[in-house]
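Why do we care about 3D structure at all? Because function follows from shape, and shape follows, mostly, from sequence. That is the central idea of this module. The next example makes it concrete: a single protein chain, its amino acid sequence, and then its structure expressed as tokens.
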Amino acid sequence: MRDDEDMPQLRLALAQVDACVGDLAGNADLVVEWTRKAVQSGAHLVAFPEMVLTGYPVEDLALRESFAAASRRTLDGLAGRLVDAGCADAVVVVGYLDRDAAGPRNTAAVLHGGRVVARYHKHHLPNYGVFDEFRYFVPGDELPIVRAHGVDVGVVICEDIWQDGGPIAALGEAGVDLVLCVNGSPYERSKDDVRRELVARRAAEAGAPIAYVNLVGGQDELVFDGDSLVMTAGGELLARAPQFVEHLLVLDVDLPAGGHGRDGRVGGFDVRRVVVSEEPLPAYEPLPAPPVAEPLSDEAEVWSALVTGLRDYVQKNGFKSVVLGLSGGIDSAVVAALAVDAVGADAVHGVSMPSQYSSEHSRGDAAELARRTGLHFQVQPIADQVRAFVEQLGLTGLAEENIQARCRGMTLMALSNQHGHLVLATGNKTELAVGYSTIYGDAVGGYAPIKDVPKTLVWQLARWRNAEAEKHGEAPPIPENSITKPPSAELRPGQLDTDSLPDYALLDDVLDDYVEGDRGYADLLEAGFAPELVERVLRMVDLAEYKRRQYPPGPKITFKAFGRDRRLPITNAWREHEVR
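And the structure:
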């Protein structure tokens, strides 16, 4: 029970859900279903993530008037559906795409009693990394504060808490009892700690608790990890949802409410107070405090992100199965294990495609991985295909090596066409960075699960996944030989990756500074890297841009992934080494 009978109570529910871009009807069903669950749990206030009704990000769909109109119609219909579902008394906050005379808006609507009682248009529009919101949306400067059961609630959207000032500062100046922040915040490594510190700072700035609800699931190259939480103005973490799963976080909050009356122009915003219900709720017995979900380890977090991204890409795009080449090496082994975790062994088809240079141990390691994971396995030798091209075209050297990779790519695409499988490309971020892949060969595919995973992290994940299996009394999915043997493309006799590339640990260090950190030539020398190494690596990275542009999408896990995060011209005469 409460110690202070003057503090209004409120049962809050944060619905951490997996929405699909463009599926207005399905996402509306999702909102109704999870609101009903929240109401059955006794919730008075239910919050959903940013643009949950349309999915996020909608990209150029935001510019289609027909889509914006359909989004608004769906929202208006949703208000009535919630009444029909027995949720009329709940205050429900739903993100959606709006459009008015000024243009498209990233908006959160407050629904109650079958109608929209308030709308908040996102103010801070991110225009960096994977975000292009300044291209799509018009910022808002209206700030509704909704009084529900005597509690004054302000609503902000995602980037609004990542920037200093703005609506949080205005809410603090005007006075609120609770801030709801609805989010579509993509995952990247260690971001959960950054979020927690950020929310704590903004709660202190607002002088009120912040309830932060985030999307979960995969959307093309983005993965959303949930990680919803509630933080007091004093920095106490009251509740935290688990990552990478749909979850309803329900908790009771006692709020020192009342005494707020300022509206009009505050901090550059038009503050308007909307009263839904003035009187506090009668005192009730609160639920036990929900457990605070423990953050995942780094490897568990990355693995969960990759599995989530792959699973949702397969399912949301209507594929029933996936196919990939199994070389016996570490990359294809990790991708196969990810695929089995994501969609189940029965939906995964592995193909060994040996050439005349494929070693017996590589063939055996591929078969052993299939045995351990239970995926479907077949052997399709490519020697005859390769011979036909080599003899007809007179290929030698690199051209002969690459035709092997392209015959494998053709084989996988033929199986995809015949059986409807999604082809998984197995290249990692290090190879993609330096162009160590064959375009239309091992780069072929519809999705690339480890596209943003550096080679050294691939090995780390393999060891972690095997250790997790042993911890649960299961057979490790990845053969030890695939982890420990020197990596090789096996396109010529005795070939090793180190014939063409620096040691992977050293290479990943250089790439981290150059790609993730955008450090220039002089900066890399100052960091202690040898000039010949820096010139060699930077040249490989710069010349491989055309390959990266044609590579399949894959889940983002790092600060700067290839693709939307890093956009460089293909035709580009600039070279860092020219500046000394």
